[in-house]
UniProtKB/TrEMBL annotation:
Keywords: DNA-binding, Plasmid, Transcription, Transcription regulation. Residues 64-247 form the IclR-ED domain. GO terms for biological process: negative regulation of DNA-templated transcription. One of its GO terms (molecular function) is DNA-binding transcription factor activity. Pfam families: HTH_IclR (PF09339), IclR_C (PF01614). Residues 1-63 form the HTH iclR-type domain. This is HTH-type transcriptional repressor AllR. InterPro entries: GAF-like_dom_sf, HTH_MetabolicPath_Reg, Tscrpt_reg_IclR_C, Tscrpt_reg_IclR_N, WH-like_DNA-bd_sf, WH_DNA-bd_sf. SUPFAM superfamilies: GAF domain-like, Winged helix' DNA-binding domain. The keyword DNA-binding applies. The keyword Transcription applies. The lineage of its organism: Bacteria, Pseudomonadati, Pseudomonadota, Gammaproteobacteria, Enterobacterales.
Length: 249
């Protein structure tokens, strides 16, 4: 089992850093180059990775990953329910809008986005994997997960990405309590320095968080006096998605 987990982590790292060399992967993951090389060639033979030849060969994800996209990414109930609320939220705030889903571990994955019309804007690609404890979409979901899952994440590894990242369990618990009280999350540059965001959870019919939606902006446009307004608009979009998705289910 540990060998499988190690191999999947290599695959995830390639997806995040591609194109990337064996040496770079070995250093980032603190693994022997021979082990990394063996894992890479195994995924290559299975069709999941491709080798980019050159002075320094590098590895990248192969198009085969598109064949295993979840329902959320292929026009399922959630995918079709998010389009109108995303557009309305983007038009109302003029900021980039993201919808993410929980990966079941300690991260969230962007499944769709609408970019801000401003020339300076925050942009992450669809498929981007971000930490659940330090992003607006992540905290919006984390705050409403079952208590056992919350504690597992809080007591796990809370990676620091810059001086603002919340890495202390008690501090994160307090932040999640505030998310539950007001109904939306606030990311004050916890993940990417200079990028602020406001997010809200999307619930299913059983009131379980199945996704989240957020607006993201550079700190130059972030205003504390706008938080309540942005939070209300984001929650309204999240509720609209939830209603549409549940109606389609």
């Amino acid at each position: 089992m540990q060998s499988l987990i190690k191999s999947l982590k290599v695959l995830e790292m390639v997806a995040e850093k591609q194109p990337v060399s064996v040496g770079e992967l070995a250093k980032m993951m603190s693994m022997p180059k021979t082990t990394v090389q063996r894992i890479l060639w195994t995924f290559h033979e299975a069709g999941w990775l491709r080798l980019i030849e050159g002075d320094m060969p590098r590895w990248a994800i192969s198009p085969r990953v598109l064949s295993v996209r979840p329902d959320e990414l292929t026009g399922g109930g959630l995918a079709s329910a998010i389009q109108e609320p995303m557009a309305e939220l983007r038009n109302a705030t003029q900021e980039t809008v993201y919808v993410s889903v929980y990966d079941g571990s300690s991260a969230v994955v962007v499944i769709d986005r609408l970019e801000s019309p401003h020339p300076v804007r925050a942009v992450s690609p669809v498929g981007d994997i971000a930490p659940i404890h330090s992003t607006a979409n992540g905290m919006a979901i984390l705050a409403f997960l079952p208590e056992l899952q919350i504690e597992k994440i809080i007591n796990g590894e809370l990676n620091s990405f810059n001086p603002s990242t919340i890495t202390q369990p008690e501090q994160l618990r307090d932040e999640l309590n505030r998310v539950r009280e007001r109904g939306y999350s606030i990311n004050r540059g916890y993940y990417r320095a200079g990028i602020f965001a406001v997010g809200a959870p999307v619930f299913d019919a059983m009131h379980q968080p199945v996704a989240s939606i957020c607006i993201s902006m550079p700190d130059s446009r972030y205003r504390e006096d706008k938080i309540a307004e942005w939070g209300a608009l984001t929650m309204q979009a999240a509720q609209s998605i939830g209603l549409q998705k549940n109606a389609r289910s």
